[in-house]
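Supplementary notes for students who missed Thursday's class. We covered one full example, reproduced here. Read the sequence, then the structure, then the short commentary at the end.
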Amino acid sequence: MVPAYDQMQAGKPSTLTKWGAWVSSTHCFDATLFGLSAQEAAMMDPAQRLLLEETAAAVAGSGRSLAALHGSDAGVFVGCIWSEWGEALALQQGGAGRVGPRWLTSSQVVTGNGPAFMAGRLSFTFGATGTPLGDPIEIGAAAAVLCGPWARWAPVALGASKASQGHAEPAAGMVGFQAGLLELQQAAAAPFMHLRSLNPHVAAALEQAGGASSQPLLVAARQSCGMPSKGQAGTEASCGVSGFAFQGTNAHVVLKSATIERSNCSSDPSPAAQPLWQRNK
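Structure (token representation):
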């Protein structure tokens, strides 16, 4: 990326990004394993190929088979972002065909229904984007629910994975999801890193909900905040994780602490054969 960046600095059209991470060998894709033809695989977005491969690797790494997972209750969580693959294919084909760049000027894109959005045929008119505006709205909504007269009195901690992990873009929801799992496992909410003073608009949102000092909505500042352990006065810890997409799609998942089941795996240290992947018997 550095040579291309240097060309941009010299006034030549290239790239505004000095650093980048590239995925190699995306063409090395076993289409037959996933029941796809070579023609379908060639037109697929490389991100979709990687998603299938990583999913297969996760199943194989868990020691389970596809037959054992078929029909079972399982949670699948994916962080995704817009795709530029269709535009790249259109440029390679001179802009012809149904994947051409004409969709860029489509009225559907204006209403949030463009092919770049993976939420489906949904239209959103308004969206609160930006930390100074979005954060107080989000905190105010959480305070209205958690600090209302119907709320059970229990310690509630606010957290933000961006404070410690940075802006993860499409993976931000997954980062928060993993952080929530770790906090439930450790029975403690992680502190806000680099927090020096609270946004006055956020403080106002808390006060409007009834007062930050008298309500159970807390902000974990520079030290971790303990959670109630399961079995302690009949309580159990829970966690809510929100993910917000640029075009207006919001997702929220509620996690609860659970008892870890004993593993059925043998503790025998002797060598054993384990197939990496098996599609058929």
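Commentary. Strands lie at 156-158, 188-189, 217-219, 225-226, 238-244, 250-256. The domain at 131-256 is CATH 3.40.47.10 (Peroxisomal Thiolase; Chain A, domain 1). If anything here is unclear, bring it to office hours.
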